[in-house]
């Protein structure tokens, strides 16, 4: 469990710098350059993510069961993860309603993804992993919305034609992930 926690501290800590130390972040970027910042950020993110995956895998070998998920948790988790898979690409498609409504759809996508996995798993390692991501996404979303208000950022209204792109990408990615990749990666087939 300690490897998982260290990975979470690195990954989510790094992804929280803008929330808690944006002045330091900006000063460091000014000193070392944006490309150096992005390179260091990427390397540390990959290390943190690797530790999360490794630590979660180790913790799964000897799970501490906190509760048994209900029968309804799998279909609810499937719907929640579908929403997450649609919201994630919406961050990159300009002029869609998801971005107009949520402002930060990538961060919002973490919320249903984490909640889905909390509902579908009842182990301590799942609570640590997905609970950490859920808390982080809520805090980051609040901070991003505050920054938007302070900086006067206005997001353009969305159009239905631009909504199709993240929906199609999200549904296709969700189907591929749910039917093929998730089972291969985790040994768990979420849709049976």
Write structural notes for this entry.
It is a single chain. By secondary structure, the chain is mostly helical. It has two domains: 1-62; 64-192, no CATH class. The chain has helices at residues 2-14, 17-20, 22-32, 34-61, 73-90, 97-102, 105-120, 124-151, 160-186. Helix 1 (2-14) runs antiparallel to helix 4 (34-61), helix 5 runs antiparallel to helix 7 (105-120) and helix 5 (73-90) crosses helix 9 (160-186).
Any idea what the radius of gyration is? 18 Å
Secondary-structure element pattern, one letter each:
HHHHHHHHH
Structural class: mainly alpha
Distance between the termini: 28 Å
The helix content is over 70%
- pLDDT < 50 runs, ≥5 residues: none
Silhouette:
globular
User: What count of structural domains?
Assistant: 2
Arithmetic mean pLDDT: 94
Largest sheet: none
Strand content bin:
under 5%
Kindly state the number of beta strands. Answer: 0
Membrane topology: Multi-pass membrane protein
Transmembrane segments: 37-56, 76-94, 114-143, 164-185
Pfam families: NnrU (PF07298)
Subcellular location: Membrane
């Amino acid at each position: 469990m300690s490897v998982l926690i260290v990975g979470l501290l690195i990954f989510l800590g790094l992804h929280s710098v803008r929330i808690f130390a944006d002045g330091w972040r900006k000063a460091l970027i000014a000193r070392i350059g944006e490309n150096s910042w992005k390179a260091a950020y990427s390397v540390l993110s990959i290390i943190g993510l690797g530790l999360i995956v490794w630590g979660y895998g180790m913790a799964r070998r000897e799970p501490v069961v906190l509760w048994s998920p209900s029968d309804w948790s799998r279909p609810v988790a499937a719907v929640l993860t579908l929403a997450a898979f649609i919201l994630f690409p919406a961050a990159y498609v300009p002029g869609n309603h998801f971005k107009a409504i949520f402002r930060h759809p990538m961060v919002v996508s973490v919320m249903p993804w984490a909640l889905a996995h909390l509902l579908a798993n009842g182990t301590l390692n799942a609570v640590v992993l997905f609970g950490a991501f859920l808390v982080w996404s809520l805090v980051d979303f609040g901070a991003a919305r505050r920054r938007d208000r302070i900086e006067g950022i206005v997001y353009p209204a969305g159009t239905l034609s631009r909504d199709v792109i993240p929906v199609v990408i999200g549904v296709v990615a969700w189907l591929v992930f749910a039917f093929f990749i998730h089972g291969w990666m985790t040994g768990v087939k979420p849709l049976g």
